[in-house]
Design goal:
By secondary structure, the chain is of the alpha+beta class. The chain has a domain at 4-177: 3-Layer(aba) Sandwich (NADH Oxidase), CATH 3.40.109. The protein is built from 13 helices and ten strands. β9 (277-278) and β10 form a beta hairpin.
């Protein structure tokens, strides 16, 4: 008989560091375009698992010597290879026990700022843009909470992890929601964010008597800074586009506008072009990397939580 512990063990063996499970009932009341049953009507459980972002990947940005390590090991193949291994291990286990495994990429900014969804392909169906809210799903799976910056915090790694999600028709025992708050609202994330995009109006959800709350994020300012177009966060735009003195506080980009701007300008900024991922030889172009270094939302937050002794350290093999 398949158990929740067997699923978690498979996730850890496959390469994840932590894993949690939510029952689909916890998603009741959420937008249909982010509900598991809109993607997979037979879903009964939502499996969320994560791999840690290594602290050392930020060192080059802290020293002003190398921005590429964070992009590779915080976003690229360096972290998603381990998540991919966990996805395969969990999916194989589910199928071996006669259950479906539906992988959802999840998202967070897209749901806030992307262009409107397309029309449904069939009457009575949702538009073809179904995507679970990754951070909310992780909270509902008992892995932690959304910090005030909206970056997800776990007891093991604070703000340093990436997630993947699998939906399944297997009825698995859900994990309890976190009882102790990790974020203490120190506001280091807000103060040190070079994009000045954090700490907006309070938002929250309530599930099983537990409230998760965070400050609204200006996703346009965040994405402009993330792409390295904010001179307060990146030296490269000033070097290669000296006339572009973007005053980030005065910009009013929406997320998608900033997203497209990053692709357009990365071709004109040598370092961003150098670390871009993608296949230019096949006409796909390169994807600009994360150059902001998550100075406020991750680095400042992690420093504060470690100083307060709030992180467990994430010993490999522990599961949520």
């Amino acid at each position: 008989m398949l158990t929740a512990q067997m699923v978690k063990d498979a996730a850890i063996r496959g390469g994840a560091d932590i894993c949690g499970i939510a029952n689909v009932e916890r998603f009741a009341g959420g937008p249909p375009e982010t509900h598991p049953n809109s993607l997979f009507p037979e879903a009964k459980s939502v499996i969320v698992y994560a791999s840690r972002i290594l602290k050392g990947s930020y060192k080059g940005i802290q020293e002003g010597t190398d921005w590429s390590a964070y992009w590779v090991y915080g976003y690229g193949s360096g972290i998603y290879s381990s998540l991919g291994g966990a996805t395969g291990a969990i999916s194989n286990l589910l199928e071996e026990h006669g259950h479906e495994a539906v992988v959802s990429p999840g998202g967070h900014t897209l749901l806030d700022e992307a262009p409107p969804a397309r029309e449904p392909l069939a009457k009575g169906k949702q538009p073809p843009c179904i995507m679970l809210h990754m951070r909310v799903a992780a909270a509902l799976a008992g892995l932690g909470e959304l910090g005030w910056s909206k970056v997800f915090l776990t007891p093991e790694f604070g703000p340093r992890q990436r997630f993947d999600i699998i939906l399944t028709d297997a009825e698995l025992e859900p994990d309890p929601l976190v009882s102790d708050s990790i974020c203490d609202k120190c506001m280091a994330c807000v103060k040190l964010c070079p994009g000045k995009c954090l700490g907006g109006e309070r938002e929250s959800i309530e599930v099983e008597g537990h409230e998760f709350a965070w400050g609204q994020v200006d996703c346009g300012k965040c994405k402009v800074t993330h792409w390295g177009l904010n001179p307060k966060a990146s030296p490269f735009v000033t070097k290669d586009l000296p006339g572009m003195d973007m005053k980030i506080e005065e910009t009013s980009y929406k997320w998608y506008e900033a997203f497209r701007l990053g692709f357009a300008l990365s071709e004109r900024i040598d370092y961003l072009k150098l670390i871009a991922t993608g296949s230019a030889e096949h006409g796909q172009g390169g994807r600009p990397g994360s150059v902001c270094g998550a100075v406020g939302c991750v680095q400042a937050c992690n420093t504060h939580l470690e100083a307060r002794g709030k992180l467990k350290g994430g010993v490999k093999g522990d599961v949520a």
